[in-house]
């Protein structure tokens, strides 16, 4: 019997690892569709940001209570995973609480900590479900936010419920195991005197005292398997879900923008054109390198701005996969607050949905397949793009430094420079700047007229 | 009140260059400061302060041109770079080292976006400049209008605050006045935009339930302030329009921080 369980366990573990590897490769390939950009510079500053914002969850504490609750789940996720190591080794070797005899004095302390966290995670997940579906926190409601369609809401419910079930499995497994140990049943009894009762599961023991030995062993095995298979299934599920932020949140923060939020990225390929048209010496190649001596044209200039995900930078695509759809960006967006169609969260969700659609195309039609859809128009409309005030409140609000504004601005560039699709009044503003050196129709020679009034009394 | 007749001067870079002089600082006026009737008063207030403290400054005058900010944010990178590279030609031609401006959009663009195109200067916003003058004791805000009993609330400009993390300077400037400073709920990094950034100033808003400036002005009025202080020409227009929309223009005024300082200093 033991050996059958071991074989099944190894098979399940191998299948999970194989499948997740496949998923990770696919997601990495999708992110690499983006244009290259060096985000490996300033390692010190990036590391510091990651420690503060990702590991330290700094931005989550804007709302202290929610910050603390999220921290409990986060700490639970990180720390309870230590216990997974023992569970996996037990599963492979057919042992029971492998570490207990070797680290006898600290073992119960460790498990107590895990149990406290497990209980905390369970409690917070219940609170979070209530916030979403009972207290109806505004940013999660489909009546108010059209991107909160059925799947994002179901996804959230699945994640929270799965975590609750996993924690119940973990705690009741410990409780049933304690009862078996007390009764001295088989190998469970061998840990009598080595492993004591645990802090939380101790209170659950009365649930199991009425069980026969056989039923109890069955439940102990069921809970153990449910817990570990549940974790494996959850790990796979995460790769399809907004919950991927538990993994990508860290690199996403590491690679996040370091420049001031107000700075828009330069387009060196345009600098060259402008320098030529002004009759100035050309100082840069489109890739930012110095020009070569004979002034040869660069190989090829891509499209200006972004029409589809391939035109965005890889970090924009990693941002999309890291987004957990919390909606803090959208709640801070002045356009969204005042009822415009723009929602920064939707920009991120659309970008990920478009990437998923491309992956689906690869699966059904081969790796070179390109459909004729695009992020612009098929997902994100001009009305949304045109509503943005570039105020950067969305970037500021994001707990993991996602930048929806960067995507919006790249899509705007495409619409204006490749399609000449600016709103008419923007075209008027452009021509005023071009002809009058100001966004309004004033004569440039009148620009200094204000100085005549400097000595007039008020 | 009898007032001695002061003559304020506005030297241009061309004047300075002709007489072989270099100013300590270039005052970048910006398009709104040059053409917008309301913001011209801010330009004048700031020039009077510069005269008053005796700083050797100059403006570009007719040689100044739009930084290109609204074009860039609207998506027209060509036009932005045409403006930027031409402006940099002019600034570098005059060997400009230090720039002060009363427009956060000009401030952000020249400070953060011109260096990559060959224009590197020390750029400060007029709130920072005024803060310096107050800290050095060069402005005492004692000789003019009293602000006792008045309530002022400061509206953060996105391109000053979030974009460049300048939150304290304008508040310290206002603290020099003997008024009560009251804060709105959404301030500093969480400040709500006036609705004008990203080219919105130059077009009608997209369809929605409300205008952004009205939402913001409602918040400002909620503080009970009689003065809304701003530090940006676009915020100035948006907040003034919002106050009018709420029919409160008789009891609530919108001022730039430099105007308040000029009033306090009796300029």
TrEMBL record, chain A:
| Entry's Gene Ontology molecular function annotations | 4 iron, 4 sulfur cluster binding; metal ion binding; oxidoreductase activity
Residues in 4Fe-4S ferredoxin-type domain copies = 314-345, 378-408
InterPro entries (UniProt xref): 4Fe4S_Fe-S-bd (IPR017896), 4Fe4S_Fe_S_CS (IPR017900), HdrC_iron-sulfur_subunit (IPR051460), Helical_ferredxn (IPR009051), NarG-like_sf (IPR036197)
Recorded hits in PROSITE patterns, A to Z, give: 4FE4S_FER_1 (PS00198), 4FE4S_FER_2 (PS51379)
The answer, when asked if Transmembrane helix is one of the entry's keywords, is yes
SUPFAM superfamilies referenced in this protein's UniProt entry, alphabetically: alpha-helical ferredoxin, Respiratory nitrate reductase 1 gamma chain
Task: Give me the segments passing through the membrane.
Answer: 6-21, 64-89, 109-134, 155-173, 222-240
Gene Ontology CC, one term: plasma membrane
| Superkingdom as given in the UniProt entry | Bacteria
Q: Which UniProt keywords apply?
A: 4Fe-4S, Iron, Iron-sulfur, Membrane, Metal-binding, Oxidoreductase, Transmembrane, Transmembrane helix
Protein name in UniProt: 4Fe-4S dicluster domain-containing protein
Organism, per UniProt?
Answer: Spirosoma validum
The organism's lineage is: Bacteria, Pseudomonadati, Bacteroidota, Cytophagia, Cytophagales
TrEMBL record, chain B:
Q: Name one GO cellular component term.
A: plasma membrane
Q: Does the keyword Calcium apply?
A: no
The identity of this protein, by name, is: (Fe-S)-binding protein
Ranges for domain Cysteine-rich come to 26-111, 152-239
Which UniProt key words apply to this protein?
A: 4Fe-4S, Iron, Iron-sulfur, Metal-binding, Oxidoreductase
Organism this protein belongs to = Spirosoma validum
Identify a single GO molecular function assigned to this protein. Answer: 4 iron, 4 sulfur cluster binding
Annotated InterPro entries: Cys_rich_dom, HdrC_iron-sulfur_subunit
The superkingdom of the source organism is Bacteria
């Amino acid at each position: 019997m033991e050996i059958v369980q071991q074989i099944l366990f190894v098979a399940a573990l191998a299948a999970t690892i194989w499948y997740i590897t496949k998923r990770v490769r696919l997601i990495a390939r999708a992110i690499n569709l983006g244009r290259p950009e060096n985000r490996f510079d300033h390692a010190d500053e990036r590391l510091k940001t990651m420690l503060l914002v990702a590991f330290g969850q700094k931005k989550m504490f804007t709302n202290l209570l929610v910050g603390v609750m999220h921290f409990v789940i986060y700490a639970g996720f990180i720390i309870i995973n230590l216990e997974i190591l023992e569970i996996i080794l037990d599963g492979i070797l057919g042992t029971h609480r492998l570490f207990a005899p070797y680290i006898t004095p600290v073992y119960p302390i460790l498990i107590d900590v895990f149990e406290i966290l497990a209980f905390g995670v369970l409690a917070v997940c219940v609170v979070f479900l209530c916030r979403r579906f009972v207290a109806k926190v505004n940013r999660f409601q489909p009546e108010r936010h059209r991107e909160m369609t059925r799947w994002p809401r179901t996804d959230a419910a699945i994640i929270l419920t799965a975590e609750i079930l996993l924690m119940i499995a973990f705690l009741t497994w410990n409780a049933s195991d304690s009862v078996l140990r007390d009764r001295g049943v088989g190998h469970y009894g061998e840990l009598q005197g080595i492993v004591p009762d645990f802090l939380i599961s101790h209170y659950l023991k009365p649930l199991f005292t009425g069980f026969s030995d056989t039923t109890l062993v069955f439940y102990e095995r069921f809970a153990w398997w449910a817990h570990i298979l549940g974790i494996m299934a959850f790990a796979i599920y995460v790769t399809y879900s907004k919950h991927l932020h538990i993994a990508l949140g860290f690199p996403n923060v590491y690679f996040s923008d370091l420049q001031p939020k107000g700075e828009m990225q330069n387009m060196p390929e345009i600098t060259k054109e402008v320098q030529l048209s002004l009759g100035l010496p050309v100082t840069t190649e489109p890739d930012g390198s110095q020009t070569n001596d004979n002034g040869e044209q660069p190989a090829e200039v891509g499209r200006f701005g972004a029409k589809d995900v391939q035109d965005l930078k890889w970090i924009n695509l990693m941002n999309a996969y890291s987004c957990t759809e919390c909606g803090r960006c959208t709640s801070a967006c002045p356009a969204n607050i005042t009822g415009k169609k723009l929602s920064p969260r939707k920009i991120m969700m659309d970008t990920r949905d478009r990437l998923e659609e491309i992956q689906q195309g690869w699966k059904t039609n081969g790796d070179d397949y390109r459909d004729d859809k695009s992020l612009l128009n098929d997902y994100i409309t001009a009305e949304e793009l045109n509503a943005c005030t570039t105020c950067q409140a969305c970037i500021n609000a994001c707990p993991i430094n996602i930048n929806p504004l960067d995507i919006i601005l790249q899509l705007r560039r495409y619409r204006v420079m490749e399609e000449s699709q600016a709103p008419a009044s923007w075209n008027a503003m452009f021509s005023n700047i071009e002809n009058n050196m100001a966004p309004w129709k004033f004569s440039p020679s009148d620009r200094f007229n204000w100085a005549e009034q400097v000595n007039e009394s008020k | 009140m009898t007032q001695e007749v002061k003559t304020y001067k506005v030297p241009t870079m061309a004047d300075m260059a002709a007489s072989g002089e270099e100013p300590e600082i270039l005052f970048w006026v910006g398009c709104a400061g040059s053409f917008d009737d309301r913001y011209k008063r801010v330009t004048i207030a700031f020039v009077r302060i510069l005269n008053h403290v005796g700083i050797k400054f100059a403006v570009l005058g007719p040689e100044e041109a739009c930084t290109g900010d609204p074009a860039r944010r609207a998506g027209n990178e060509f036009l932005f770079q045409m403006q930027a590279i031409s402006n940099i030609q002019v600034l570098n031609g005059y060997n400009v080292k230090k720039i002060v401006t009363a427009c956060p959009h000009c401030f952000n663009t020249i400070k953060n976006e011109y260096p990559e195109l060959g224009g590197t200067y020390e750029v400060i916003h007029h709130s920072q400049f005024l803060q310096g003058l107050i800290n050095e004791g060069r402005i005492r805000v004692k000789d003019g209008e009293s602000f006792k009993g008045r309530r002022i609330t400061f509206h953060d400009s996105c391109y000053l605050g979030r974009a460049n993390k300048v939150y304290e300077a304008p508040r310290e400037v206002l603290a020099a006045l003997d008024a009560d400073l009251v804060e709105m709920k959404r301030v500093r990094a969480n400040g709500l935009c006036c609705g004008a950034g990203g080219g919105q100033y130059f077009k009608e808003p997209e369809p929605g339930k409300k205008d952004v400036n009205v939402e913001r002005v409602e918040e400002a009025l909620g503080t009970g302030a009689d003065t809304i202080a701003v530090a940006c020409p676009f915020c100035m227009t948006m907040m003034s329009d919002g106050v009018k929309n709420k029919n409160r223009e008789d009891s609530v005024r919108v001022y730039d921080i430099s105007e308040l300082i000029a009033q306090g200093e009796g300029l």
